[in-house]
Amino acid sequence: MELILRGAALYLFLLLLFRVLGKRSLAETTTFDFVLLLIIGEATQQALLGNDFSTTNALVLITVLMGIDLAFVKLKGKYKKLDRLLEGTPLILVDHGKPLKGRMKEAKVDTEDILEAARISHGLEQMHQIKYAVLERDGQISIIPS
Amino acid sequence: MKRIGVERIEHSLELEEKLDQQLKGWMVQKIGRVLIGIIILLTALGLFGSGLLSNKKIKKNGTSLQYERFLRYEKEMDVQWTIAGQEEIQIRIPLQYLDRFKVEKVVPEGYETATANGYVSYTFKSGKTTETPVHFYLNPQKTGNVTGEWLVNKQRFQLRHFIYP
Predict the structure, then answer these.
(1) How many angstroms away from the CA of A117 is the closest CA of chain B?
(2) Do the beta carbons of residue A68 and residue A7 sit within 8 Å?
(3) DSSP-based three-state secondary structure for B11
(4) What ranges in chain A are assigned the alpha helix state H?
(5) Inter-chain touch A20–B32, beta carbons under 8 Å
């Protein structure tokens, strides 16, 4: 039982923490962020397994975490409000070539991020060539050209 | 500095933007960031052990005690005593208190132990030194609040801890 509670507590804590940090912080993963994620993984592993390094403990823990994740996927599919709460909603950042500065500031996205996404996805050169730029739920910026 | 409001627009995209929910979400994120800052600050101050908020010192009639108020599950802690001018030192710990801990080590070694009337007593011969340091290295085995009244040569000392999971 303790293992289930420990797994559930850490799952919910990480879910809350990454939701508070915002989606852009996850999408803009740098090499250092990757190292940081490894450190977080290492710290979490210690707390999850405790002093029990048996295979059974690891298998039970993986099953518990996958079970919680599956339950959340099911719940998000059933309750749209919960889905929007946990995953957020898409956000338009550019409207007919005009950057929406207030939204960009809140979402912590700058003009360079949008132009980079425009160059990568469509080879666009200028802001006025963008009809819409949308910050998607997974933190990626999608571009709809004019 | 000019404050920029969040723009409301009409668009032709088939997507559920839910701007009001976004605004609430950003507000929650701001509160969350402040909370993260507060937690880091409190951690530095010792809310989760080892710091200003956690260190507890008591001095009574030549006996001083130092211990941590906030402990973590299975993280060893040290209850430090300094006893002055006593040739024989008897420290009695309530069994109900020890039920929450595993005694890892007691320094100095070469003591006598006995159990009676709900207490475990440790007796040390200290010679004629002016101050004798005694350390109890305890490992928390249960979480929550723990209170115990230790007796050092019949003097009472109240120890209070909170053990985090």
Answers:
(1) 18
(2) yes
(3) coil
(4) 2-21, 23-27, 31-49, 55-78, 80-87, 101-107, 111-122
(5) yes
**Domain end (from B47, B63, B86):** B47
Which tokens in the block code for residue A126?
A: 């200028």
* Range A91-145: architecture per CATH: 2-Layer Sandwich (3.30)
Angle, to 10 degrees, between the axis of helix A31-49 and the axis of helix A2-21? 160
pLDDT at A28: 65
Higher pLDDT, B1 or B68: B68
B29 and B106 belong to one structural domain = no
3-state secondary structure string, A3-20? Answer: HHHHHHHHHHHHHHHHHH
**Assigned domain for B1 exists:** no
Q: Is residue B29 part of a domain?
A: yes
- Shortest CA distance from B28: residue in chain A: A20
DSSP strands (E only) in chain A: 91-95, 98-99, 130-135, 141-145
Segment B96-134, tens digit of pLDDT: 999 999 999 999 987 899 999 999 999 998 776 678 899
Contact B138, B105 (CB under 8 A): no
B34 with B60, same domain: the answer is: no
Do B35 and B82 fall within a single domain?
no
Give the tokens for residue B12.
């032709």
Identify all chain B residues contacting A16, using CB atoms and an 8 Å cutoff. 32
Question: What is the reported pLDDT for A95?
Answer: 94
Instruction: Confirm whether B160 is domain-assigned.
Output: yes
Whether ipTM > 0.90 holds is no
